[in-house]
Amino acid sequence: MIKKITICLLLLIAAANTSKAQPQLYYTAIGVNAGYNYGITLKHYLNTKNMIEGIANFNYGPGITLLYEFNHRHPFDIDKFDWYYGFGAHAKLVNGRRANVFYEDLSRHINLGIDGILGLEYTFKESPINIGINIKPELNFTADTKFWFDGALTLRYVLK
User: Fold this and answer.
1) pTM for the whole thing?
2) I need a surface site. Which of 45, 100, 101, 110 has the fewest CB within 10 A?
3) Domain ranges of the chain
4) Per CATH, is 25-158 categorized as 3.40.50.2000?
């Protein structure tokens, strides 16, 4: 049984690695990140598989998140649909008095930490619009040293 599973996994990996490279759906897109850490997002393709994304967020103080992402095409065999995952870091100036009940430090402080991201996005063929949904776990190393989960709906204008 284990041999069969191993062979199937190897065949799937080989098939995924031999698929033809397809051009990305856009080069750069800018828009809104509507989640707990709401803000502005800018995503840019470095090549057909790798992207960088910057998120300027404003919830309980200004902050920035920078992510390096890996793109995969057509989940569920739907054209113009991509899924991606990645990692990065964030820095945020937090006003603890405006923050929610989970913050223990009520003073102004800086949160520094690491982030992960997993998401799906769809780029419309007829218009320069890209929509997506993601989850973004993050771990703060300073001040609020906790593991947080963020998620967002994104709406971006494709600049091509």
Assistant:
1) 0.78
2) 101
3) 25-158
4) no
